[in-house]
Amino acid sequence: MPKRFVVAASEFSELPRFAKGFELAEALTVAAEQLHATSSPHGTLRTAVRLAVHLLPGAEHAGISVLERTERRQTLVWTDEVVRSADTLNAGREHHPYWNRLWSAPVARIEDSASGEGEGDLALSSLGLRSVLSLRLRADRRRLTVLTAYAREPRAFDDTATRIGRLFTAHVSIALESATVREQLTEAMRTRDLIGQATGILMERLDIDAAGAFDSLVRTSQRENIKLRDLSRRIVDTRAGA
């Protein structure tokens, strides 16, 4: 199970709250620098939720979740316990129309959870969370990674908040991808002999050069969400058992 973290927004008090215009451009630049300064994918996620409550107009709380088609939604990081409580109350409602919307669209919003449109919405309302804005960070056929901002006021997230959110999550996605690649490359260095064997097998099997074989390993590792070391071991073991 992925590690979970509670984070506080106070460390980012130097950023202008809900900036606009040129100030927003500067704030996004600072945010990008802080995102890329993290040392791991989990660090990137923790930084992202901290920044979200400062940059997204109306945001008071934020979390990042992974949603799979066949498994429950898991919130990986959150700014406040109320976000974790919202995740707990909505357990088992991963196929709620709100979450399903994110498989085909990059953004989903709940204008007012107290409107009574669904059981999951009412669960949010019971926690005092009236507005919800979710933005995709990553997506493939099996898994979504989503940043969700919450507010206690209804209709807190307008089109401006959504546009800023999409700009921000673009930075988060790039930083997360970069951190993931760095982590994979570090792991690759620790297990280079095993990876070398797997690379040789792919070179022979696919009739490609070493660079192409290694690139194929990295892409498959990211797509299947499996560590490079474990993927290489699987390839080597399959060859040995052939």
List the helices and strands and how they pair.
Blueprint: E1 5-6, H1 21-36, H2 41-55, E2 61-68, E3 74-78, H3 81-89, H4 97-101, E4 107-110, H5 119-126, E5 131-139, E6 143-151, H6 159-190, H7 192-206, H8 210-224, H9 228-240
Parallel strand pairs: 1-3
Antiparallel strand pairs: 2-3, 2-6, 4-5, 5-6
Helix pairs in contact: 1-2, 1-6, 2-6, 7-8, 7-9
Characterize the structure shown.
The protein is α+β, with helices and mostly antiparallel strands and 242 residues long. The protein folds into 2 domains: 5-177, GAF domain (Beta-Lactamase, 2-Layer Sandwich); 191-240, Arc Repressor Mutant, subunit A (Orthogonal Bundle), CATH 1.10.10. Helices cover 53% and strands 15% of the residues. It is built from 9 helices and 6 strands; from the N terminus they run βααββααβαββαααα. The chain has a 6-stranded mixed β-sheet, with helices on both faces. Helix 1 (21-36) packs antiparallel against helix 2 (41-55) and helix 1 (21-36) packs parallel to helix 6 (159-190). The longest helix has 32 residues, at 159-190. The chain is elongated and about 60 Å long. Mean pLDDT is 85; it is low at 1-11.
Q: Quick gist of this model?
A:
With 242 residues, the chain is α+β, with helices and mostly antiparallel strands.
Instruction: Please report which band the strand proportion falls in: under 5%, 5-15%, 15-25%, 25-35%, 35-45% or over 45%.
Output: 15-25%
Count of domains: 2
* Total E-strand runs: 6
Distance between the termini: 32 Å
- Mean pLDDT reading: 85
Q: Which parts are unreliable, with pLDDT below 50 for 5 consecutive residues or more? A: 1-11
Kindly report the spatial arrangement of strands forming the biggest sheet.
1-3-2-6-5-4
Oligomerization state of this entry? single chain
Order of helices and strands: EHHEEHHEHEEHHHH
The residue fraction in helices comes out at: 40-55%
CATH T-level fold name of the largest domain: Beta-Lactamase
Which structural category fits the helices and strands? Answer: alpha+beta
How many strands, what sense, and barrel or not for the largest sheet? 6 strands, mixed
CATH superfamily of the largest domain: GAF domain
Given the C-alpha coordinates, what overall shape results? Answer: elongated
The number of helical elements comes to: 9
Name of the level-1 CATH class of the largest domain: Alpha Beta
